[in-house]
Amino acid sequence: MTHPARSTVNVTTPSDREIVLTRAIVAPRDPVFEVWTKPEHVRHWWGWRSSEMIVCEADVRPGGSWRYVSREENGIEVPFTGV
């Protein structure tokens, strides 16, 4: 029998322009890293169920960046980026 992963989330606001979410997940490291970093997996869980991910790019090396763009049902595109 497998057990579902457990996690805790900590949210901080180090400045007026930053929100930092830290999640600790009790699960095997390799599959969790893959699901959070490979675009073919991120597409399945990022955003609202009613939205479509139209851009999913991620360079997860140190100093790399990521960019996701979701299109909502009403056609509005919502970008997310990070380094």
Summarize the model shown.
19% of the residues lie in helices and 40% in strands.
Jot down its keywords.
19% helix, three-stranded antiparallel sheet, two-stranded antiparallel ribbon, Alpha-D-Glucose-1,6-Bisphosphate, Chain A, domain 4, globular, alpha+beta, 2 helices
Structure in words:
With 83 residues, the protein is α+β, with helices and mostly antiparallel strands. It has a single domain (6-82), classed as Alpha-D-Glucose-1,6-Bisphosphate, Chain A, domain 4 (2-Layer Sandwich). Helices cover 19% and strands 40% of the residues. The chain has 2 helices and 5 strands, in the order ββααβββ. The chain has helices spanning 29-37, 39-45, and strands spanning 6-12, 20-26, 52-58, 66-71, 77-82. The strands form 2 sheets. The chain has a 3-stranded antiparallel beta sheet with strand order 3-4-5, covered by helices on one side. The protein has a two-stranded antiparallel ribbon with strand order 1-2. A hairpin with a 7-residue loop joins strand 1 and strand 2. The chain is globular, with a radius of gyration of 15 Å.
